[in-house]
Amino acid sequence: MYDKNWAKVDLDNVPRMVTPAPGPKSHEMHARAAQYMKGYSSQVRLFPVVFESGHGCTLTDVDGNVYIDFSSGIYVTGLGHCHPKVTEAVQRAAGELMNAHDYTTPIKMRLLEKLADITMGEGRKKLSGMQLYDSGTTAVEAGLRLMRAATGKSEFISFHRDFHGKTMGAVGLARLDASQGLRAPGFFLAPRGYCYRCEFRQKYPDCDLLCVDYLRTIIREETAGRVAGIVLEPIQGWAGSVVPPDGWIRKIRALCDEYGILLMADEVLTCMARTGKMFAMQHWDTVPDVMTLGKGFGNGFPVTAMLVADQYKEVIEKISASTSYGGNPMACAAALASIEVIEEERLCERSAHLGEILLARMKQLEASSPIVGEARGLGCLLGLELVKDKATKEPFDLAGQLVYQKAFRKGLAWIPAGHILRMSPPLIMDDDLAMKALDIIEESIYETQRELG
Ligand SMILES: Cc1ncc(COP(=O)(O)O)c(C=O)c1O
């Protein structure tokens, strides 16, 4: 049993910036790596720090600066960096057996039984058909293959600004950039329930969720009427922690049932207590037919899953689960230990509580700052949308960049996305440390406001 206080920090010493960041060693090492590594994300391009270690809710860079972690390695390390139980489980597995292809191993058996224990649904709707993969995008691809095989149809509908991964099927579900070329035939995108920027210029709830009704138009006018699945992120991650209005997910579920379309919830980012429930779909009591898990599933170890309703178990037999790394013993050990920690440390409750206190303060910031258009989120999946003018809601990209960099320099590691700032603290964070992180964000916003006039 590990010390329950393993991740406690000395609040007076975190963050601790000993040199202006990114410091000289970071600059030197990043420049050496960047000679070869290309295509860095905006978070690195805007702040090319080199991290050396992580412990619980803090990160330390090669210059000795200590940061509050408000990104969890891009929504991954929800239990904190190097949680002793997960680290120990992976180390033990690495010393026993590293790979056994898709043979059953004792640890895989235990993980599958645990997942069956916590998964959603009852009877034929229970998500008890499972396959294990090594990245979110490959789990998403497996879900697409499954839905095609189960329905004998081949079209998919997904939503504006959702993100599902970088393989060719998954990119077809999302916004394309020039390098990705054409969307494959059979992929259609629909406006999403994003009330702050409603594409139909409606007001919720008076709109009666017109955006969901519009899916009927897409099915009738754009598809060949051969829609296998509707794919959605229950809460958007990349797009900036956009929580759909109540009723949105349930109305889509009803529409799927009416048309005989399968519903796939891509919970790669939202699973494992990130939003205050084990799975985000539980906020709306809605069981999808297919669900993908990733990121926090292994708390840093690459392990993902595709789950499907019991009624499609015969179909899933036809979708080969064999991959080189999916479900290897180290991966299974990491995932099993992570689920156990979430349960033992009651991290769903902790995530919901942190989300409540953080969002309450972020809403005050929304009210007082002329550039915070919307503060939003659920559990430890939070975001701030910056605008030039609250009436026109024009995105304020420069402010997003400056606030991100200023806060980072003060010791907050977090995630930019153009004019949106994303927050994904570890679920184990103490209230005081979370409040300290928000102090830094507030200061950085006020400084930016003054600077940009
Ligand atoms: C909702 C969602 N699905 C799928 C993916 C792809 O996961 P991976 O990067 O592990 O392939 C991501 C990654 O950010 C995601 O947020």
Keywords, please?
2 domains; 453 residues; Aspartate Aminotransferase, domain 2; alpha/beta
Could you tell me the strand content as a percent range?
A: 15-25%
**Which percent bin holds the helix content?**
25-40%
Number of helices: 14
Uncertain segments: none
Number of domains: 2
Q: Largest beta sheet: what is the strand line-up?
A: 4-10-9-8-7-5-6
Instruction: Calculate the mean pLDDT score and round it.
Output: 97
The CATH superfamily of the largest domain appears as: Type I PLP-dependent aspartate aminotransferase-like (Major domain)
CATH architecture term of the largest domain: 3-Layer(aba) Sandwich
Distance between the termini: 54 Å
Write down how many β-strands occur, each being a DSSP E stretch of 2 or more residues.
15
Q: Please report the first level of CATH classification, the CATH class of the largest domain.
A: Alpha Beta
**How do the SSEs run, as a string of H and E?**
HHEEEHHHEHEHEHEHEEEHHHEEHEEEH
Bound molecules: pyridoxal-5'-phosphate
Coarse shape: globular
Class per helix and strand makeup: alpha/beta
The rounded Rg comes to 22 Å
